[in-house]
Predict the 3D structure of the following.
Amino acid sequence: MVLILYTQQKINKSLWFFFSACIFAGFTYEVIGINTGILFGDYKYSSVMGYKIWGVPVLLGVLWFTTMYCVGSLTYQAYHWFKIKHKFTISNKLEINLLAIIAAFAAVFLDLFLEPVAIKLNFWQWYPYGEIPIYNYVCWFFGSLILQYLFVNLNFNKENKFAVYLFTIQLIFFITISLFYK
């Protein structure tokens, strides 16, 4: 998170709003999930991730921001590269929807690899049988989609190359660990 903010070309009120919204929403999603099972399914955090409030590590809000910023920036930059290379235009409304939906799918894609590794490293556990429910990924998609609509609509610089590298590094890390850590 610190490196994302450090490498951001210009930090303005919109970026701070997005930062705050991600921390608040991410932490709230997790508190609801942990304490009710309504979001994500039945899971509990271990003590590995540090101090918890209402059963949720404080760090989770920051991780939601980092993930949402990285997938939003990656999607934005890839889309604009593709748009310039192929010289096409679409309506602003369609562009906003497309960017938010693709970024939400990118977040779920990362979570597909993150979840099994987090279980292996004892960050959290799923109950009753230790299996990750499909419902978790559905909730990830919709929770991410809400935050990606904010990302797309707020006025701040979305071209942060470090965010793209960070997403790629995280993806490689989780894929590698899932393949070689038994």
Observations:
- Helices lie at 2-7, 13-36, 59-86, 92-120, 134-153, 161-180.
- The mean pLDDT is 91.
